[in-house]
């Protein structure tokens, strides 16, 4: 797979996911505002990838600060952090990564500004490398839940494209495949922005993992016919009680899975677990441009001009519908998470 995000020649290089699968193109962000805009415009998306990109955006912004006095420098980097934090509201990895960069800034206060600038780049790279390692660990724990011959349904894209590499939900699928299990994947197309059709289908085909694309409203019929054995999805934020915010439509999949007695798993790293948020009701849900619903790719209208639109980008799946949460530390019941991740 091509890298989703990388530090390249003093710029943050992003695979432009808004152009996939028709065009494999990269954009080089040379200032932090461009990084924040790329996150806002879904050029990079998926909770862990947003976090890694945000950390790199902060490091990039810090390089352009001219002050050599720590106090001035830190104030300006703080403003950069605040700006990047406005890019999207739901994925907690964004705030987690920015918080980690801020902590680094404080920890380095005795060093010269030139040294701090270099170390902020290193910290963002560490976050990236850790993210890949977390995904691979999750993959090992999750793969044990999948048996050869099974068909797994996934929603949205929680793959290498949504992380620094390997993926969360698709990391589980990828690990099972790498272990030689003969599995099939059903990818929900995931309206309105079609991350399943455009990204998951493309990503799995790149790795030659068998994938079949369906529209979102077909999942129930397939479950009733016994054609789906397990569901695994990613997460944008997991509250302390185990409620999970993920791409709109995830809740519907969980309800259908429960109705058909099919296990429903969520795969996510510790950076997605937000113990400060008590329940799903407290998770901010992003509302996006109505054009995402009224037109395909913003340019092919599918609804009458002026129609009222509601476009929440995420929904909350209550803990009681979730069979287990696959993390880098193992698989837990939603209610067990807080005890295992309170640091
Ligand atoms: C490993 S990514 C998990 C989630 O971030 C993913 O399922 C999702 O909801 C992405 O939404 P997006 O709006 O594309 O950023």
Short synopsis of the structure:
With 343 residues, this protein is of the alpha/beta class. Helices cover 39% and strands 17% of the residues. It folds into 2 domains: 5-135, Up-down Bundle (Four Helix Bundle (Hemerythrin (Met), subunit A)); 139-341, Rossmann fold, CATH 3.40.50.10470.
Describe the protein's architecture and organization.
The chain is α/β, with parallel strands linked by helices. The chain folds into two domains: 5-135, Four Helix Bundle (Hemerythrin (Met), subunit A) (Up-down Bundle), CATH 1.20.120; 139-341, Rossmann fold (3-Layer(aba) Sandwich). Helices cover 39% and strands 17% of the residues. The protein is built from eleven helices and 16 strands. It has helices at residues 32-40, 47-63, 70-84, 92-107, 113-143, 169-178, 195-206, 219-224, 250-259, 291-294, 337-341, and strands spanning 5-8, 11-15, 26-29, 151-154, 184-188, 211-214, 230-233, 237-239, 244-247, 264-267, 273-274, 295-296, 300-301, 314-317, 324-327, 330-332. Strands 6-5-4-7-10-15-16 form a seven-stranded mixed β-sheet. The chain has a four-stranded mixed β-sheet with strand order 11-8-9-14, with helices on one face. The protein has a three-stranded antiparallel β-sheet with strand order 1-2-3. A hairpin with a 2-residue loop joins strand 1 (5-8) and strand 2 (11-15). Helix 2 (47-63) packs parallel to helix 4. The longest helix is centred in the middle third of the chain and has 31 residues, at 113-143. 48% of the residues are buried. Bound molecules: 5-S-methyl-1-O-phosphono-5-thio-D-ribulose. 5-S-methyl-1-O-phosphono-5-thio-D-ribulose binds next to helix 2 and strand 9.
